[in-house]
Amino acid sequence: MNTHFYDYEKNFLGITEPEFCKYEKSKFVIQSVPYEHTSSYVEGSANGPAAILRCSQFVEFYDEMLGIETYKKVGIATAEPMNFEGKVDAAAIKLIEEHTSHFINDNKIVCSLGAEHTVTLGFVKAHLKKYPKLSVLQIDAHADLRFSYHDNLYSHASVMARIHELDVPLTQIGIRALSTPEAELSTKSNKIHTYYAHNIRKNENWMDAAIDTLSDTVYLTVDADGFDPSIMPAVGTAEPGGLFWDETMEFLRRLTERKHVVGFDIVECAPMEGTIISEYTLAKLAYRIMGFIHTGKK
């Protein structure tokens, strides 16, 4: 597969030292996946990956929580965006799976910046090839468990239903918008563990309880609307009552201390004119997760 990589003028964080951003030397790869085909409310998530990359160039190299310059410890290469011309639904998922598998086979940890949440199906399929005992951790406002939406099995609202069909254990954090059939599936399936937003703040032990439901090998998917709109306004389908920054950082720190996070994605940022708060926050989130993975469970 011919994949081109950005130099320091466009790469994640604006890294200028080749030894810390060349593909061959990097532990992490930034994969931009601007696929948007089924947005059902606010459109524009296809612009999210590029916006996050731009904002990342203003994120400090030094991580004050971890006390390190993470990029010097791990190396971060940045691939040019994927091209989805003429490919939608199953064909798009197949392309994503193949693209992601290439990096995994080179022993890279992939940080995928996606548009709509549909893309996560391709990422999970790729990781399952190497990690058959994989479980998925989903931070999200929405369950995404509809069998189909607008007559499309590959809708962003159905991505977790497709993953559930792969017999992959799924733990959901921050859910606060779902249909009756989704709630019924969540209740009856022994493969789904849902932690509703309105419940987690009543349970001081929710973080460890949620982590206990996961296998040792975890794929993490973060929908931007999992955060509260007060700190993450630029999303396609905002819902009140979401997660805040500090509690999410504590949860992710515990997760990476106890489990092997082998890949992750950040999706559904729909940039808004006049503000960069969402895409900047997500750029810092991506960098922080890399740091947590580096310093976490070995």
SSE layout and pairing:
Elements: E1 28-33, H1 48-56, E2 62-63, E3 68-69, H2 70-74, E4 76-78, H3 89-105, E5 109-114, H4 120-130, E6 135-139, H5 159-165, E7 170-175, H6 180-188, E8 192-196, H7 197-200, H8 206-212, E9 217-223, H9 245-258, E10 260-267, H10 277-295
Parallel strand pairs: 1-4, 1-5, 5-10, 6-7, 6-9, 7-8, 9-10
Antiparallel strand pairs: 2-3
Outline the structure in words.
The protein has 298 residues and is of the alpha/beta class. The protein has one domain: Ureohydrolase domain (Arginase, Chain A), CATH 3.40.800. Helix content is 34%, strand content 17%. The chain contains 10 helices and 10 strands. The strands form 2 sheets. The chain has an 8-stranded parallel beta sheet, with helices on both faces. The protein has a two-stranded antiparallel ribbon with strand order 2-3. Helix 5 links the parallel strand 6 and strand 7. Helix 1 (48-56) crosses helix 10 (277-295) and helix 9 runs parallel beside helix 10 (277-295). The protein starts with 27 loop residues before the first strand and ends with a helix.
Salient structural properties:
alpha/beta, 17% strand, Arginase, Chain A, 8-stranded parallel β-sheet, two-stranded antiparallel ribbon
